[in-house]
Each structure stands twice: as C-alpha cells, then as structure tokens.
Amino acid sequence: MANHKSAIKRHKQNLKTNERNGAERSKMRTVIKDLKNAVSASANAEDLQKKFISAQRIIASSAGKGIITKQTGARYISRLYKLIGKPAPSATK
C-alpha cells in the first residue's frame, strides 16, 4: 500500500479508473456478444444493421477513451463487418 499522500491519492484514482474502464469494457463485450448471437440466430438484416451500428459506436468510443487501443477497436469492427457479411471499408492514410 502507498505511504505518501500523493501515492495514496493516485491509488484511489487508479481504483476508480479501473472500475470505470471495466464497466465500459464489459458493455463493449456484451454488445459484441449480442451481435454474434443475432447472427447465429439468423436475425433479419434490419435488426443486424441496428445492432452493428450500436456495437460500432461503443467500440469506437472505447477506443477513443483509451480503454482499448485504436488498432484493437478497428480489428473488432472489421471482424464484425465480416461476420454480418459486408466487406470492411478500406482505411486510407
């Protein structure tokens, strides 16, 4: 355990951040799992599209906040595109 006042504060901040990031990561994983279940259940195209857009937003948000790296977020989105049967848009630099 930390002994200095600043180290104690930093430890408290780390605990709060860890909890917040864990909740965000859990939400992201749940949305991905819901989309995968909808694909396996042969849901209609409209429903899949709505779920995909929702998942894409949450993944991009997590990547933007630094919870996952941007490359990891791009990989997740690309795999979901592939899963629902659309070609992933090519990234241009």
Summary?
It contains three helices and no strands. It is mainly α and 93 residues long.
SSE topology:
Layout: H1 5-40, H2 45-65, H3 70-84
Please provide a written account of the structure.
It is a single chain. The model has no long low-confidence stretch (mean pLDDT 90). The protein has helices spanning 5-40, 45-65, 70-84. The N and C termini lie far apart (46 Å). It has a single domain (7-84), classed as Ribosomal protein S20 (Methane Monooxygenase Hydroxylase, Chain G, domain 1, Up-down Bundle), CATH 1.20.58. The protein is 77% helix and 0% strand. The protein is an all-alpha fold and 93 residues long.
Question: Whole-number average pLDDT?
Answer: 90
Rg, Å, rounded = 17 Å
What's the CATH superfamily, by name?
A: Ribosomal protein S20
Q: How many distinct domains?
A: 1
Descriptors:
93 residues, mainly alpha, 3 helices, 0% strand
